[in-house]
Each structure stands twice: as C-alpha cells, then as structure tokens.
Amino acid sequence: MRNLVYYMAVTLDGFIAGPEGQYDFYPLADDMTAWIAERYPESVPTHIRPHVGLPVDTPNKEWDTILMGRGSYEPGLAAGADSPYGHMKQYVFSRTLAQADYPRVEIVAGDPVELVRRLKKEGGKDIWLCGGGNLAGQLIDEIDRLIIKSYPVIAGAGIPMFSGVFSPTGFAVTDRRSFSNGAQVTWLERA
C-alpha cells in the first residue's frame, strides 16, 4: 500500500510560508540544492529543472502523485506553469478553481481524506503531500511519513505547517541530515 508523505520546508516557529505565501526567505545552499535534486528529483518543479541542471525527464524516485492546496499551486501559476509537476499525477484541492480552466491538473473540490484513501489502495509510488497547512490538517490522520526541511529562520507569522483541530499525533525520528546553510532534513514515521 502506498504511503502519504508530507515533505515540506518549515521555519523554527512552525510556518511553511509567510502570511502572503512567501517562501523566498529560506536560506539556500548549493549542497542542499544538489542533495534535493539527487534524492528527491520529483520535488523539483518541471519548469525549474533546466535551471538547476536537472533533465526534465529525470525519473521519479519516491513519489508519482502530488497533492496541493490552492496556495501551494498558485506559485507555479504565477510563474506561468499551470502544470508545475508535469512529471507526476497532480491533484489540486480547491472549491473555487474550475477544472475546465486547468486541464493539466485534477481539481478536487471534495473530501481529501476520501481521495487519499483511494489513492493509497492503487499501485504506484508514494504520494507527496506538498501543502499547505490547511490541507495537511485535514489529512493528519492519513499521513504516514514526515520529511521536514527545517531552516534556521523565524518567520513570526505565516501559514502553519498544520492547521485544524487539536489532534496530538506521535511520530518517531528515523533519520536526520544537516547542510551548510544550517538547515536540517528530518525523517519521521508515524509512531
């Protein structure tokens, strides 16, 4: 059965983006960028791949499906990419976007839990929950693994990693890696 993996960047105070969806304040480092391209090439948007030396047709290693809230989808749209992860099956959760306007992704207005449970039963690689915090909050009981890229930055306000109801959920750290910019990647499995 496939796993739902929440792979995201987060500040020290628990935000995945600023109040207006900003994410350009995360400190970049060449060693981390190269590692991401090697370890998780599918996480590099299709339209960005040529700019980081990653061939567009690089095979997916971990995930073949991506789930995005509207806020996670909009940066790609702003860059002119209506299919930011064209190398994967893309689901965008929105009650306001019309499918006819975005034919290269699947717009989902319904229950994300129902979709995830169906996807988990299908064959294929794992499913990447890209964000945002509202969608992650709705799917907290379905998340099997967390891969947290934590950066040494305090945002002060923004979009939380999870939003929703109080639901303490245990995870166990399975690995951790550090980079030259002070960021760490931590892998956690549902306890």
Automatic annotation (TrEMBL):
Chain ranges of the Bacterial bifunctional deaminase-reductase C-terminal domain: 4-168
Domain of life: Bacteria
A single GO BP: riboflavin biosynthetic process
Gene Ontology MF terms: 5-amino-6-(5-phosphoribosylamino)uracil reductase activity
Name of the featured protein: Dihydrofolate reductase
Organism: Nocardia aurantiaca
